[in-house]
């Protein structure tokens, strides 16, 4: 049964990613077609084609390796100054026939030339007004930005109901509701042992405090948070205490003779610093921790924090992946909080679904949050302003807008469309880097996997 549930978890995660990829590519294709660009292919996956169907001018299909997808929009790269299209005549039907003049001096120029030539092989007579590079800059931004925006929207659609009902496992608060009452006072040096007959009764036990009581005030001082309760208890030293609690909707006033005990030294931040012991007030109760809940506004705020954390994670990604590489060969332990590939994500999903010790609701929430987290990261990653990522094309369109805008302000000749083909060497380097990091993470998830059980 466990193996079956594990397989179900992996398959659910894999299916969710395939759907997310498909929706990401629809995010590109729909506005591209809306703006009149020619879209010749829409595929989920890479490698050999498993299934495809031609609908109008677009071929829709699924490929064997579900690690991504693509939409082929004709004319992504403009003809550069060194590779301008020239008319060489007309065909039998009178349509203009274009030819690309090539200039391939130098390695980088050759890369640019080859990329541009491959792009223009798809251009057919009559496509001239439907080429992507000829779209206004803002349409380019919408087309390229809609893909990753869909992933972020998927994450948002999952976060909102989870945060509103179950709560946010990354945002825990401590409230002054009693979750445990100590039976006795154990010396700090022997903390953790069982009570004996020689141990004095804990002040909370003596006062009659029960699990579920909400502490409202301490010695007449209203308390709204657990930190307030903790401060008042510690400051009470060996004095008596009158504690007002809310129990089953009624306020009760409870009294204890003393709250003093020997506890670890308290530092300036209110936490034990472990340097010794000091006589401070001690009641003998533990607070309740609960997940913070919230709706749309709360989710937006949390996703803002996630954005900052994700940007920091992306900045440290190469170092983190290097750590995984060292863990693979046994040079260090793998960071359990470090990055994982979709293989690692699948393993975590399988473990979450098949762990019987965890309530079903918690397992379902973990799986949903895993799916949402992957979508959010994929969306943010694709906004990185480097080719071949979507953010690279967005950056190129924005640069084009600024450059043409400045030319208009200063009455200079229109510089024309920004030539993203000149950034192809960068695209190759970035693409190779991403591929290598992906392979390292996949190998790491197979050799030294991260487990939700530690």
Automatic annotation (TrEMBL):
Keyword Transferase carried by entry: no
Keywords on record: Hydrolase, Membrane, Metalloprotease, Protease, Transmembrane, Transmembrane helix, Zinc
Transmembrane region(s): 141-164, 364-384, 426-448
Compartments in which it is found: Membrane
Annotated InterPro entries: PDZ_6, PDZ_sf, Pept_M50_Zn, Peptidase_M50
Record domain Peptidase M50: where: 13-405
The protein's name: M50 family metallopeptidase
Organism: Nocardioides yefusunii
Lineage: Bacteria, Bacillati, Actinomycetota, Actinomycetes, Propionibacteriales
